[in-house]
Structures are given as C-alpha cells and as structure tokens.
Amino acid sequence: MDQFIFFFDKVIIAGSVLGSVYALGAIGVTLIFGILRFAHFAHGDMMTMGAFIAFVLAGIAASLGISAPVPTGFLVLPVAMAIAAAIAMGLDKAFYAPLRRRGARPVTLLIASIGVTLMLQGAIRLFFGVQTRSFFAHEPKSIERIDMSWIGAKRDIVFTQPQYLMIILTVVLVVALHLFLTRSRLGKAMRAMADNADLAQVSGINTALVVRITWIIAGALACAAGTMLALDVSLKPDLAFNIVLPIFAAAIVGGLGQAYGAIVGGYLIGFAETLAVFDWSVVLRPLQPYVPFEIPFGLSIVPTEYKLTVAFVILVIVLLQRPTGIFKGAST
Amino acid sequence: MIRRAVLLYGALFVLIVAVALFSGVPYTTRLLAEAAAYSLIALGLNIQWGYGGLFNFAVMGMMMVGGAAVTTVAHPINPEFWNSAGPMLLGRALLAFLLGALIVYGARKVDRIGITGKWRASVVVLAWIVAYIGYRTQIDPAAAYIEDKSGWVGGLGLPVVLGWVAGGVVAAIVAVIVGRISLGLRSDYLAIATIGISEIIRALIKNMDWLTRGTLTVSPIPWATPLPEAYQAQGVGQIPSLIFARLGFFALVALVLALGMIFVIRAYGGPWGRMMRAIRDNHIAAGSMGKDVKNRQVELFVLGSVFMGIGGAILVSFTQIFDPSSYQPINHTFLIWVMIIVGGAGNNWGALFGATFIYIVWLMSAPLSQMLFGTISDWSQHIGWGAIPDIQSRSLQMRVFVLGAVISIALRYAPRGLIPEVVHKDEDSSQA
Asked: For residue A133, what is the enclosing H or E element?
C-alpha cells in the first residue's frame, strides 16, 4: 500500500496541481486564439505579471495586518485578477488593436505579442530584480496529512494547503467559465464569434465587446494561474517563460479555440510530465521476488532534467499526427 | 529606395563612430566582430522568413548546435577519454541507436506485409519503446562512466575554421530532421513547434555532460586568427594588441559574411529566388504550377540553418567559451527576429543593416540605462527618498524592454522594415 501512497503523492497530487496551472493558462491562450486568431505568446508573462501583482498586494495586506485562515496570496487574488484583467485590456488597446485595425495577418500579431513579452519581462525584472521570492516568507505554508493506516499503509498522504486550495479554485473557475459560456448572452456571443466572426458581426453581435471580454477572462485566468504557480513553488521573473510552451502544448493538444479541450489538454500535459519523471522502481520493488532479474534504481521514463521537454515532445507528436488537436480545433 | 539605404548605412557608420568615442576602440572592434557574426545569422533567418515565409523560432537551437560543433572540433584532444573504455561504450551506444533506428524504420514499413491501420500504429509505437529502452540501457552507463573517468569526450584538436564548417554541416543535418518533421504546419503552429524543438535541443546539449560538459562549460576554444596574447608576445602594447587581434578576427568574419552575402543576393535574383517568393506568396498556386512546395521549403530551411550554425560557431569561438546555460530565447532567437523585422524581411541589405543596428542598440542600451537609472537613483537620494536598491543590476534588464519596445514600434510604424523588400512591378504586390 505504501507504494500506492508514494504514487499518489508524487503523481496524482503533483500532476493535478501542475495540470490546474496549465489548464487555466491554456484556456486564456485558446480563447484568444478562438476570437482573435493569433497565438498569444505574451501569455506566460501575463501570468508572471499577475503573480507579481498578487505578491505586491499580499505585501500590502500583510502590512495592514489583514490575515485569514487561507494564505494571503489567495486572499488578494480577486483584486489581483481584476487588475491583471485591466492591464490585459490595456495591452490589447495599445499593441494589438492598432495592428488589427490595419488588417495585419495573424503572424504579425504573433510577432507583436513577442514584443509585448519582451517589454513585460523587462519591466518585471526592472521593478523586482531577478532574485527568487516566496509568498511564504512571513507566514507558514501549512501541510496537511491524511492518515492512511486504515488501509494498512505506513505513510501518510501529504500535501500543502495551497495545493488543495488551488485545485478547488480551479474547479470553481472552470465551472464559472462553463456557466458563462453556456448560459449568458455574452458567453454565447463569444462562442458564436469563435465559430464565425463575420457571421457573428452581421447578426448584430457587438464584436468589440466580445474582444474586450476575452481579454478580461484571459487576463484574470492568467493572473490566477501565475499566482497559483508562485504559491506552489516560488516567484521568479522568468517563472512563466518556461511554462508558456507547455501551455501552448496543452492548448494545441486540446484543439486551439476549444475551451474545454484546453482544460483536458492542461491536465494531460501536467500528468504526462509528472508520470514521465516518476521513479517507477519504488512501485515495482514489491514485484522483486517474482522477476528473475534485479530491478534497478532510478527507473524513470526520462531523467528529471528533461521534465519540460516532455510537453514539447507531446506537442510535436500531436502536431504531426493530429494538427487540429484531440477535440477538433479552429484553424485560420 | 537606394537613397534611403545609403542614408541609413551612413547613419549606421556615424553611430559606430559615436560608440567608438563613447566606449573606446577595443570595445568597438569586439562589437564589429560580433555584429558580423549576428549579421550572418540574420541573413540565415532572412532566407527562411524573408524569402520563404517560414516561421522559424529555432534560431537559438541552430546557434547552439553550431557552438557545440565548433567546441568538439576545435578543442584539444582529451587523452584520458581515448585511453579509457569510453570510446568502446560509446560505440555500443551508437550501435544501439542505429539498431533502434532500424527497428523503427522497419516497423513503419509493416504495411508491406499486410499489417495496416491501428495495428501498424501500435507496432510503430512498440518499436519506438523498444528502441528507446535499448538505447537508454547503453547510453546511461556509458555517460556515467565517461563523466566519472574522464569528465567528457574532449575535442578533436582540428583547426577552428573547420569547426565553423562543421557547425554549418551539423546545423544542416538537424535542420533536415526538423524541417521534414515540422514544415507543412501552418505558420503559427510552425512557430510553436520550432520553439519547442529549440528548447529540446537546449535541454539535450545542456544535460549531455559527457559530450558538451553541460553547465561546466568548455574554455578556452582556440581562435581562428592570432590572439591578443600573440601580439603582446611580440611587444605590442595591451590595448593595440586587443584592437589588432579583434580586427583580424573581424576581417575573417567579414570575409565569410561577404561570401554569404554574394551567394544569397545571387540566389535571390535568380530563378530559384523567384520560385521561393512564389511559394511564399501563394504556395497553392506554386504547387499547382508543379513546384514541390514541401521539399523546396526544407531546402530553404536547411540553407538558412547553415548560416545560423556557422554564425553560432563563430560567436562561440570569438568569446572562447561554450556555456550552454548562457543561451536564452530572448538573447538569441528573438534578438535575431527583431533584427530582421526592423531591417526589412526579404531584403538582404536590410537584414545586414538591422543586425548591426539592433546589435548596437542591444549592447549600448545596458550602459545607457545604467546611466539613466543611476542618475534617477542619485536624484531620489538627493531629495531624501533614498537610493533605489541594487539599481545597477536591475537597470541592466532594461535592454530586454528596449528590444520589446523597438519591435512594437517597428510593427506599428514601419511594418515592412527600414529597408523593405523591393517588389518589382510585374510581380504581385500583395503583402501584409
């Protein structure tokens, strides 16, 4: 049973946390692609920026003496999400809208988003330096243990408080998004525009409003994803650059333009990464008496330092075998 | 249009002179040598993006491959490795690799014996797994043995210029594989696929310690021309020796660049260039005219990557150190992209101008922003707000911001670059 607990700790928990971050990021990427038809590379830096906004707000809240049973990072998250959404709209107004008005190709917008990436990176590093920070410098990161002796295990299931909070938060956000997309008028307009922008416009849908809403959702979710990642590990200026590629992988695996596909893709990539670096020798050890050879140590599918490349390999395979993703994605 | 180009190049010359006055002649010679190497890389990207509209974000990967190639070729031989059992173990790993490749190749052909559809797919997947496990069982102990006994495999001790050629050749081989895999994807998918491949290359080179020494870095890599120390041994002063040595290196790189320039300009003007532009502007029409679009694009991709590989090799041999962890998408891939966008995609003189100009902006924005923020910090200290903490290191990051701002401004106000592609009248002038 201990092997199962080990597997649960290392794969199920780690994979769900990583998958939640990827899923929230990928929803933003996929919505922007669905509505505006370009790959938004600056999404990773919007996540980092959101995390830093939350960090500053958490600092302010701590200095005001506000505290709650949840980590301060979660407490300030709604405010941070609102600010990040406003900044996302501002970025669109300043950098993408003029190009769209000129009728630039999606590729030009992609290059513009790289310009935005660089500017955000530069600005974040200018204001916060390059060092690593933690949300938990002034408060403890509480650890939960679930006693599993009732099924005969000697180990406990161990996870931190931010980890289960972020999984709950992801579920809440995803359900809210689902209700918005299927029940509200605006959400339906958004899906209509993703399907066929011209048709949506002639049927009287306010496309400018839909674009604005897209940026609000994408910015808010990026902020939530970035803050969650920073709460789980640590806050670095290049936090999200490494993560923007797995997010794109998740969005493409799910089919670009498909919000539900992005969620599935996010968890798929998250679990694939944790499974690939999981050391199978521990789980296989009890089988030792039954096999004729000795089970070696360190039986992971890929060495740990290649963890990030797993996402790219999946991405490349999906692009080659099924370029539209597992749920048929939009194409330009 | 020619007047504009001449004016811009004149302004560039004035800028270089200003840099020389501002930060000294030795620094400027270094800048020139590196800018020439970057120009070569920019020419490579211009072939891919300007001529063919291929969205290649794997520039960093190609530069790294070139750098690793020159390191292996030019670094002195490591006798400890050759006297150990390392070569034999590596030979076995290579054998396992070839065997694995054979298995996968064979599995892909099982439809010949009547296994098709889902069965064929599962046979292929099984073959991949068998090949991967077989390879890992050989390479893992070999790598551990080499890292333990002799550190790494060492170099081959051959001339550096041969290393540059090797950089181009290895980049070409990688480009054939990458191109065959990913070309044919839509432009934005291609961008993401190539950036992913570039990261895979980086992870491999960074972690294959037995081959590249990984994060331990390799230095010194010999120079192609006499080093400053050689001049100093002849009694030349320190600063003149730096200038002479770097100018010598610059002359060699400029020669390579000139050859590359003549080659690409002739290719652009010829039937080959017209065909490539036809494919770029409308690949469906070009395909229906009988052009083999996919293979032509692979050709273009390989050609551009050769330039990038050589350029990457030159840069490594100039700085004399190969440090895989110093490669960043921002400093390499995106910097080259900004050069092309600002200079003018599709115009080789534009690429040359953009590369030199942006490299100067990139280098000079660091000291300038340090000066600017140092002044602000002094000022805030003066009025009693206190100095801004570690502003010297933080203001260095401004150059990333400057790069982003330059690309945004260029896209907004000069979307076709400062020296745009010249489109002749009889050609269709559709563009973004």
From this structure: none
pTM for the model: 0.89
Neighbouring C-alpha atoms within 13 Å toward the C-beta of A132: 6
For B221, the token pair is 């890599």
Query: Best of A37, A116, A118 to disrupt the B interface by mutation (most B CBs within 10 Å)?
Result: A118
Task: Note whether A240 and A18 are within 8 A (CB).
Answer: no
The answer to whether the Cβ–Cβ distance between A305 and B395 falls below 8 Å is no
Helix (H, G, I), strand (E, B) or coil at A158: strand
Polymer length in residues for chain B: 432
| CA separation for the pair A324, A315 (Å, rounded) | 12
Q: Classify B270 in phi/psi space as left (phi over 0), alpha (psi -120 to 50) or beta.
A: beta
* Residues in A 171-200 with any Cβ partner in B closer than 8 A: none
Q: Within 13 Å of residue A277, how many CA atoms lie on the same side as its CB?
A: 17
Phi then psi for B163, rounded to 5 degrees?
Answer: -65, -40
Percent helix, strand, coil in chain A (nearest 5)?
70, 5, 25
The SS3 call for residue A201 is helix
Residue numbers in A near B214 (CB within 8 A) = none
Q: What is the pLDDT of residues B308-340, one digit of tens each?
A: 999 999 999 999 999 988 898 888 899 999 999
pLDDT band at B429 (very low <50, low <70, confident <90, very high): very low
| The residue type at B76 | P
Query: A92, B353 in Cβ contact below 8 A?
Result: no
In B253-317, at which residue ranges do the beta strands (DSSP E only) sit? none
Torsion sign over Cα B54, B57, B62, B67: positive
Amino acid in position B406: V
Strands annotated E in A147-245: 157-160
B225, B248 in Cβ contact below 8 A?
A: yes
Separation of alpha carbons B39 and B310, rounded Å: 11
Average confidence score pLDDT of chain A: 86
C-alpha to C-alpha distances, B24 to B31, B53, B249, B362, nearest whole angstrom = 11, 40, 18, 17
Q: What is the dihedral of CA B357, B358, B361, B365, to 10 degrees?
A: -170
Residues in chain A: 332
Q: Which residue out of A48, A92, A126, A244 would a mutagenesis test of the B interface target, given it has the greatest number of B Cβ atoms within 10 Å?
A: A126
CA-based nearest residue to B43, from B256, B355, B357: B355
Looking at B212-334, which runs of residues are DSSP E strands?
A: none
- A90 vs B: CB within 8 A: no
